[in-house]
UniProtKB/TrEMBL annotation:
The lineage of its organism: Bacteria, Bacillati, Bacillota, Bacilli, Bacillales. It holds the Pfam family BPD_transp_1. Belongs to the binding-protein-dependent transport system permease family. This is ABC transporter permease protein YurM. The chain crosses the membrane at residues 60-83, 95-116, 128-151, 172-197, 230-251. GO terms for biological process: transmembrane transport. Residues 60-251 form the ABC transmembrane type-1 domain. It is found in: Cell membrane. Its main location: membrane. It is a multi-pass membrane protein. GO terms for cellular component: plasma membrane.
Amino acid sequence: MIYFFLSAWAMTTIYPLFWIVNNSFKVSRDVMNNSFGLALNPDLINYQNAFDRMNIGKSYINSLIMSGATVLLVLIFGGLAAYVLSRFSFSGKRIIFSILYATLLIPAFATVVPVYELLIKTSLVNTYWGLILPHTAGNLTFAILVMAGYMQTIPKELEEAAFMDGCNRLNMFSRIFVPISQPVFASASIFVFLWSYNDLFSALIFVNKENVRPIVALLNEISSQYGTDFGLMATAVSLTVIPVLIVYLFISKYIQKGLTEGAIKG
């Protein structure tokens, strides 16, 4: 019974994705008349139109640059902050944790106006940094708390052994803590990438020009300009999902590892 219900639940996730990809190979008329039927004669015209008419390739590059840079910055600064908070004892540490937890209660919509004013004053609106920096700041709290909680579980014996071998703090972070913390780094990166990649609200406000428009903003434009072309809509959605699936496939093995697996085996 458990496997039956788990399989049924999995189908509720897998089938909609299959439905979208299947309809992307149909013209709009066939999608309307028989949206649940198989595409027996697949047609690539929708994919051709997606790249020719909508310049979806440029939006792909914009999304990957901004989301990839966000993930990189969050992992670097979040990892260093998590290392300090998890392995050092200093006055004000509890206050810092309290502030971090409190910031999770602040909705992102409440920060849009001040962030937008800062971007205008620094001339970063409609640039890559205009979305990278707000996304980095917005995801740092989550990443720091998750990674700090993991690093606190790393045995102190590893730290003491590294000190005996002449390892300084920076080398200890890069050679000891980063390799051991790969599962939590992978988990944080996939969540940060998804939040950055799918953030339509910020994209419409901070980077609304065509030259820096991410793919989620392009998808929103398609829904208004090509609302009756359901085949093209299905194609755009399919192309939007592809990078997320690729990223997950590459790091899924790290996400599935236990939090302390291999911690004292090195």
